């Protein structure tokens, strides 16, 4: 998983680019954590202390993590296809897959990325 964080000093906007298949993680970072250092630090600390599978539903995305894998899914993908037919998350992910709506990566890789994001925000973020 490759990624790049940048900040435009002209208009104070942030840009996060992830490799193909991991774009949803970048959207999750900005949509759910934003650029507040305390929020990023709190999330990193919580994930480092993880002992069993946990799930956090945000405004736009849901993050599910265990010691092996982290999955980020757009909340819209978690809605049932219809009232009559309940589908599982995996079926929905395959049927409605959108690179900006679903991503999975290894737990350790996610922690390394989140630590790098924390460093980036500490250096360039809003205080």
Automatic annotation (TrEMBL):
<protein>
    <submittedName>
        <fullName>Uncharacterized protein</fullName>
    </submittedName>
</protein>
<dbReference type="InterPro" id="IPR008249">
    <property type="entry name" value="UPF0231"/>
</dbReference>
<dbReference type="Pfam" id="PF06062">
    <property type="entry name" value="UPF0231"/>
</dbReference>
<comment type="similarity">
    <text>Belongs to the UPF0231 family.</text>
</comment>
